[in-house]
Amino acid sequence: MNTRPRPILSVRDLRVDLHHRGRAGLPVAGFDLDVSRGEMVGLIGETGAGKSLTARAMTMLLPRGARVVGGEIAFEGRNLLELDAEEMRLIRGSRIGMIFQNPRESLVPVHTIERQLTLVLKRAARNDTRDARSYGDGVAEYRRLLGALGLRDPERVLKSYPHQLSGGMAQRVFIALVLVSDPDLLIADEPATGLDAATQAQLLLEFGELIREREKTAIIITHDLSSIIDVSDTLAVMYAGRVVERGTVERVLASPQHPYTRGLLASANLSEDAASTEYIPGTPPSPFAPIAGCPFHPRCPEAFEPCRESDPETTKIAGRYVRCHLYG
Question: Could you please report the per-residue DSSP string of 63-117?
Answer without folding.
Answer: PTTEEEEEEEEEETTEEGGGS-HHHHHHHBTTTEEEE-S-HHHHS-TTS-HHHHH
